[in-house]
Write a structure and sequence with these properties.
mainly alpha, Arc Repressor Mutant, subunit A, Four Helix Bundle (Hemerythrin (Met), subunit A), 2 domains, 3-stranded antiparallel sheet, two-stranded antiparallel ribbon, 12 helices, 60% helix, elongated
Length: 303
């Protein structure tokens, strides 16, 4: 009689292994299962088999099969149940569990603050655009609640910083694109401080006003405006993060192109836009002008 277990196991290629290190053999089993997943021969909930069944299928020892199953579990590919009726099933998947692991790997790789923030800019701008298209009433309510909570926390730098991160994540969640959400969670682990030491009530109120403007355009279903506002906002955040990570003076990246007055020690912004593109709004211009003035004075927190 053909069992359910053998039917599931038959979806794996069952490569012929040559004698060698057990670690190499278990790695090949892991690779087979991963390939079967990507080819959709295995789907969440499918029963992979017991340790004995996996060992028999591949002609390896139980030690090798056990090592492969533990590796698959650590990767989040399978869930293992012990005892009678136990074995390994393909997991349902929860990418958020691995967002921090990705952040650790990025940090160990030695990526720079500018690399992280450039990636965050790309993710958050698209997330804001999609949020304006896809946000539900519940998403809007969540964003509004975070802004109101931040209004009450302008004198609490740590709490305000946390709420700022939650607001940005809530915008990504309102995009209803899970890939963007997980990527942003990973980058926030690396880029977002627990507390901004230079944050004060005045700066906090200005930041929250930007968040309120962003919510307004999301609620108005204006994806172009949402993307533009988020772009300007993340550029200011990028300026702060890069300045914190570098001892040399740093001038925030601004919307539009920049030109330097050769007869002056100061830098002047020249806003230019290509034909067919919308000119920067007066709000965006004021935002960047304020950012430049603060950069000449002392760094500010822009979350």
């Amino acid at each position: 009689m053909v069992t359910q277990r053998s039917l599931i196991a038959s979806t794996l290629p069952g490569r012929i292994f040559f004698p060698g290190r057990s670690g190499s053999l278990s790695s090949q089993i892991v690779s087979d299962v991963r390939d079967a997943l990507f080819a959709h021969r295995l789907t969440p909930g499918d029963f992979l088999g017991t340790e004995n069944e996996l060992a028999a299928k591949y002609g390896v020892s139980r030690i090798v099969a056990r090592d492969a199953m533990r590796t698959l579990e650590a990767l989040g590919i399978v869930e293992i149940k012990m005892g009678k009726g136990g074995g390994a099933r393909i997991a349902r998947g929860n990418p958020r569990l691995f967002a921090e692991a990705l952040a650790v790997q990025l940090d160990l790789t030695g990526v720079t603050a500018s690399e992280i923030m450039d990636a965050q800019r790309a993710i958050e701008c698209l997330a804001a655009e999609l949020a304006a298209e896809n946000a539900t009433e519940a998403d809007i309510a969540r964003l509004r609640a975070l802004i109101e909570a931040a209004d009450a926390a302008v004198d609490d730098a740590e709490r305000f910083t946390q709420l700022g991160a939650e607001f940005h994540l809530a915008v990504a969640e309102a995009s209803h694109n899970r890939v963007l959400v997980v990527q942003l969670i990973s980058l926030q682990h690396v880029s977002w401080p627990r507390r901004n030491p230079t944050l004060n009530a005045k700066v906090a109120r200005r930041i929250n006003q930007v968040h309120r403007e962003l919510l307004n355009v999301i609620e108005m279903r204006d994806p172009i405006a949402a993307r533009g506002l988020m772009d300007n906002h993340v550029k200011m955040i990028r300026a702060r993060r890069v300045a914190e990570s570098s001892s040399r003076p740093f001038v925030p990246a601004q919307a539009g192109t920049r030109s330097r007055n050769q007869n002056s020690n100061t830098q002047t912004l020249v806003f230019q836009h290509k034909a067919g593109e919308a000119a920067p709004s007066s709000t965006a211009v004021r935002e960047n002008e304020r950012g430049l003035r603060h950069a000449r004075a002392k760094p500010i927190d822009c979350c």
